[in-house]
């Protein structure tokens, strides 16, 4: 009874000792971790020492954007799973060692056999026989191989290889989105850099003119209705200018975030030289390029292969299991005649319940395969539709930019004429401010149209699956990567698609 009580007491102590209570995160530890993470990441990001070009902005985003690095780590994880899965196909080599002890001998009495229906009584007169050493060590080295596990591991390894390719395609898709976002944010930041000072100067001039008008109105120097109409026009111009200033304020922050640079970092932008070319490649050829290169569609092709291998793996699991064993053994038991020996064996096992569950498992796998095929077909239609929409958006954005640029050129010339007349006291301050505001708005719309055009370029490249051939980003310096991207941008969509058609499709 005492032993039972001690056992219960020991059990309760062990259970209470293993209890774990939740531990809240402390503010100090979180602050330290945040500081360490920031210092560790920013240590890898070089400072911006000169004017920042579009090519360098894209290169910095590809190398240092945190979301892009997550995609790279996901691909690395898939590669590790593939490498680890290959070892599952190998036989298992098991090494065991042990030591057995008991406080007395394992010996037994003997009995005389009469027949199988009689249980003989033990003969206790003779000394009992000892068959096992109470203290002995064991060691063995066994090689075992299950052919059924090998078959399942083979198809699992094939699926892991396809998952690695899917991770690469997801990384391509993320790269397309990142490049498109950098293009758009870069041109918005260019607009901010070009217009911010002019917007601020015009706002200050408008506020001064508004103050003067209000003062003259209070002093009854001008007619009340004329003063109010004048103030109304100035306030409307101020509202437009403040909306422009608000829109431009976030552009540099967004670009810095995409490049992996801390918000608030100062850098100077270079206005890129862009060649605005219409799409001359026939739509049928663009569709052909997208159906072969689109990252999302290629993922669906790989998903179908994974589903097919899943069906085959389900069939393999329904087969009998065959185990092959071979090993060498050692036992230090003094009562053994042979302390060392080798043994081999083969065994076959089969789960009879597989006869019941097998058909449903195969049917479920085949349905999964059919679903993957249907998803691939749906993605094909979606990709073709998106290519048509992307080309339409590209053409429309190009037309909108051309029109916005023409309007800006006219407004700019009008502003110069009005400024000359204002210098000669031929027009009022309000007319000059209105002309300046109109020009600023026209220039902003031109930059916005260029930003939309760059977004359309990125979207069409994404849908077509076009990206620069870069290889490993870790092996390329920032300068080398920027140069590669510069060559890719200068190539243009038409040349890239034609190269793909000539080298990939027809080949």
Descriptive terms for the model:
alpha+beta; 12 helices; 4-stranded antiparallel sheet; single chain; two-stranded antiparallel sheet; 507 residues
Give the N-terminus to C-terminus distance in angstroms.
Answer: 86 Å
Q: What fraction of residues sit in β-strands?
A: 5-15%
Determine the mean pLDDT: 79
Instruction: Estimate the helix proportion, in percent.
Output: 55-70%
Structural category: alpha+beta
Reading the helices and strands in chain order gives HHHHEEEEEEHHHHHEEHHH
How are strands sequenced across the largest beta sheet? Answer: 1-6-7-8
Major beta sheet, specifics?
4 strands, antiparallel
Unreliable spans = none
Total DSSP helices: 12
- Overall body shape: elongated
* Global Rg: 39 Å
Give a count of the beta strands, DSSP E runs of length 2 or more: 8
Structural overview:
- It is a single chain.
- This protein is α+β, with helices and mostly antiparallel strands and 507 residues long.
- The radius of gyration is 39 Å and the shape is elongated.
- The chain is built from 12 helices and 8 strands.
- A 4-stranded antiparallel beta sheet has the order 1-6-7-8. It has a two-stranded antiparallel sheet with strand order 2-5.
- The protein has helices spanning 2-18, 27-42, 54-64, 66-86, 147-218, 224-249, 251-258, 283-293, 295-317, 354-423, 429-464, 478-505, and strands at 92-101, 106-108, 110-111, 122-123, 129-132, 135-146, 321-331, 340-349.
- Strand 7 and strand 8 form a beta hairpin.
């Amino acid at each position: 009874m005492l032993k039972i009580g001690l056992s219960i007491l020991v059990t309760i102590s062990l259970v209470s000792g293993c209890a774990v209570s939740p531990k809240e995160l402390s503010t100090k530890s979180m602050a330290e971790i945040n500081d360490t993470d920031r210092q560790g990441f920013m240590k890898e990001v070089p400072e911006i020492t000169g004017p920042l070009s579009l090519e360098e902005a894209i290169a910095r985003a590809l190398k240092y954007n945190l979301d892009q690095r997550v995609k790279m780590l996901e691909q690395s994880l898939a590669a590790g799973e593939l490498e680890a899965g290959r070892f599952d196909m190998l036989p298992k080599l098991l090494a065991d060692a042990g030591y057995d002890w008991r406080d007395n001998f394992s010996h037994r009495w003997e009995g005389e056999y009469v027949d199988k229906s009689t249980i003989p009584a033990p003969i206790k007169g003779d000394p009992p026989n000892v068959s096992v050493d109470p203290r002995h060590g064991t060691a063995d080295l066994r090689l075992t191989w299950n052919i059924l596990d090998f078959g399942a591991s083979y198809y699992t390894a094939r699926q892991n290889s396809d998952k690695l390719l899917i991770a690469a395609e997801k990384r391509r898709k993320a790269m397309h989105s990142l490049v498109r976002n950098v293009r758009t944010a870069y041109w918005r930041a260019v607009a901010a850099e070009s217009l911010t000072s002019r917007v601020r100067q015009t706002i200050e001039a408008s506020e001064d003119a508004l103050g003067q008008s209000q003062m003259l109105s209070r002093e009854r120097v001008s007619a009340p209705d004329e003063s109010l109409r004048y103030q109304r026009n100035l306030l409307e111009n101020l509202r437009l200018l403040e909306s422009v200033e608000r829109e431009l304020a976030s552009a540099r922050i967004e670009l810095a975030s995409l490049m992996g640079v801390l918000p608030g970092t100062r850098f100077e932008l270079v206005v890129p030289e862009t060649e605005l070319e219409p799409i001359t490649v026939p739509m049928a050829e663009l569709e052909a390029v997208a159906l072969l290169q689109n990252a999302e569609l290629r993922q669906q092709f790989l998903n179908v292969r994974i589903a097919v291998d899943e069906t085959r793996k389900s069939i393999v699991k329904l087969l009998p299991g065959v185990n092959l064993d071979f090993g060498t053994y050692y036992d230090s038991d003094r009562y053994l005649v042979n302390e060392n020996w080798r043994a081999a064996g083969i065994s076959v096992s089969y789960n009879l319940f597989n006869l019941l569950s097998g058909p449903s498992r195969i049917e479920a796998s085949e349905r999964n395969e059919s679903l993957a095929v249907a998803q691939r077909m749906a993605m094909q239609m979606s990709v073709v539709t998106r290519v048509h929409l992307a080309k339409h958006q590209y053409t429309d954005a190009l037309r909108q930019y051309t029109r916005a640029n023409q309007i800006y050129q006219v407004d700019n010339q009008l502003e110069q004429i009005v400024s000359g007349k204002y210098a000669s006291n031929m027009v009022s301050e309000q007319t000059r401010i209105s002309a300046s505001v109109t020009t600023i708005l026209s220039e902003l719309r031109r930059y916005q149209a260029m930003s939309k055009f760059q977004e359309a370029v990125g979207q069409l490249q994404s849908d077509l699956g076009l990206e620069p051939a870069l290889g490993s980003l870790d092996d390329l310096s920032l300068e080398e990567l920027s140069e590669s991207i510069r060559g890719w941008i200068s190539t243009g969509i038409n040349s890239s698609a034609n190269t793909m058609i000539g080298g990939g499709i027809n080949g």
